[in-house]
Amino acid sequence: MSYEVNLMPHIVTCGKTDIGLKRGNNEDAFLDDPEIGVCLVSDGMGGAAAGELASQIFVETALDIFLNSGEVTEEENMERVRNAFVKANEKILAHVKENQHHRGMGCTGELIVFSNGGFVIGHIGDSRTYRLRNGRLKQLTHDHSLVQTQLDRGLITHAEARRHPHRNIIHKALGIDDHLYPDILSGSTCNGDLFLLCSDGLTDMIEDEPILGILTSGITLSRKADNLIEAALEAGGKDNVTVLLSEVI
Fold first, then answer.
1. Of 71, 84, 87, whose CA–CA distance to 37 is shortest?
2. Is residue 192 very low, low, confident or very high in pLDDT (cuts 50, 70, 90)?
């Protein structure tokens, strides 16, 4: 599924998702709403319908919170982003309590809200948010994963991290624990900024350098999204792949 819309008067977005080459279903979900200035990517876990359901709960919860929100301050946006994670976590845990066959279901979460020349990001798990500015690609979020912890402690190299047998083990996600503490980031936008939200189906398959090459190429936003997914599939497509691009124009 894909579409390209005006998110706000100065933002254009394009989101796309693919089941990949190894999975039987797509547990990823994404949202970009032109009326409320919200972009979201989620990667479900738990197998079968459970992971898909967790991702969808996060999407629906964010919509409920940000619909008809009107003009708000950065502090209010930060609180609403945090609340989207907390409420979705509560709903997922409540669902599992009533549906024990879905035990273990959960999802990662990337949520960015644009307003008044700035942005607020909420993050949990190993999906990522990047920003391309002046030809430089920067990962804005920090993976909540076993491999990232080992990298931070200097126990493994980046090359070893990409081959690590447990690189998909995460220690933070929606649906894991009653107490949820998402990372909340904020900043200002500049003309030409390009934000990439993506599931690990992209970043496990291709490194930052080819991502940078695609994002800086002189093609449409939609084609950039296509090329990112195609690159992940050509590298093996071991997982669902979801990308969401938001450009400040």
1. 71
2. very high
